[in-house]
Request: fold
Amino acid sequence: MLEYNPVRMRQTDALITGLDNSGPFARITIAAPDVASELTSGRFVLAEIGNTLRTPLFPARLGVEAFDILVPPDHLAARLQPGATINILGPLGQGFEVPASVRRLLLVADSAHLPALLDLARPRNPVSSEKPGPSGDMSVALLLSAPSAAELYPVWLLPPALEIHIVTADGSAGRGGSPLDLFPDLARWADCVCIAGKPDTYPALAHIVREVRLGPGPGFAQALLVPPLVCGVGACQGCAVETAQGIKLACTEGPVFDLLTLGARM
Amino acid sequence: MKDTGLSINLAPEHKAGLTLANPVMPAAGCFGWGTEYAHLVKIEHLGAVVVGPVTAGPRRGASPPRAVDIPGGVLLHTGLANPGISAVVRRYSRTWTRCPVPVLVHVAGTSPDATASCCHRLATVEAVAGIEIGLPDGTGPEDVCAIVEAAAAAARQPILVRLPLFSAAQLCEATVEAGANALTVSAPPRGTMWHELSGRFVTGRLYGRFVLPLALHALCRVAEQVAVPLVGCGGIHNVEEAQAALRAGASAVQIAGAVWRDPGRLSDIARALGRSSELNPPPGELAA
Reply:
């Protein structure tokens, strides 16, 4: 029965090798060589860390044998200590796909969802323990939003080559207002857009893409959409997402979808 | 399958029988079509796999949200999403022939005609060793009889019937009289939760450890009334809970939501129950 399974996932014990609680997000390093080698941005693992269901973890930095996650301080994973092991299932899902031909990559995220996009901003020439990032010859811009400066992801932690556009709802940092105000110009500039944010913003982003781009091709705008992930392998049918092609499962056919195919109901 | 003397026949009154080398199997709705967990579960250690549910025609399933976290578990409403019996047989029957353990297909018994249609189609599939019929909640004894009689008349294979949790004791005798060879006790109960993001209530089946006492209660009551083999299902997460279901009168057990949290536990439970590890050859030997 093996050859029919499209997802080469593993269930394995992973070792926590690092924890940095100094920033607004806890950075946890998870060593799992078999899984890390096949993870990409937007793919995920389901970890057994105390919830009734497994918890999806998205890599913020990809290494050859380990990966980092960034989680808020109140996240269950932030309690993990170096030396502990956690049981993970993965790698799961379909991640972001940035074609080699892309020269102008736009990342769009609110501060809470930014970690899932961070590895896309990493350069193509890595340090020894990292996988090659996608952004070698690319210009990468980030449209980063938050309710206020206090909730903004710390920009000094972002790669220096990244062009950052900040929007806060109250105007306490960057431009005041909505990220939708800046998105049209940036979407005109980009030749690929990767998005991680609140799903209720996706219809408006899709509307703008349709307005400012003439016939954007499949995959021009890709969005991360994460409903509750129960089994992670397509067996329970619980993570349904409405798309223009019908119902899709986030765990096997997502959780990264073409933004323009997503339905209004998520 | 080798006859080791430890095997269980879930359909001793049926001409084909339904012999399992081990009393542990996944529950319908939790294991996909048999391929999804192939890399994570040692299927050869199990007694059987239960795939589906399937309906006569294709079903798009419920609109999202389908899953809601609840304390101690999950509420799931899939709306019986499946491609329909013809597509399922076309896509998976060759795969099932290579399965090292018996394959049981769960048919959603939406009506007598639809159930008979599914069973008629499955009767031609050599790889299917048994059919489990799921009953809609709220079904009365007369409707149950009609569905089960239609299934038994159309099927070549033994018929298991999965009873609704809260009416299992009321329906079990009529179900056996209508031709069920074995009973699964029981289907997950239904519940309703408010889903904040979508701003609406979601009604679906409940999975979690808290189901176990309810399922054991139903199992004990059913075991007092009927003599056919019973399959315990609901809230079983470990060997001790599987043994409790066996003590309550079950001949075999189905593992439901625990598979999602820890797929490896399914074969662990099967092995720990002490009947299987050497009984079934690995998949490659049969595939050859």
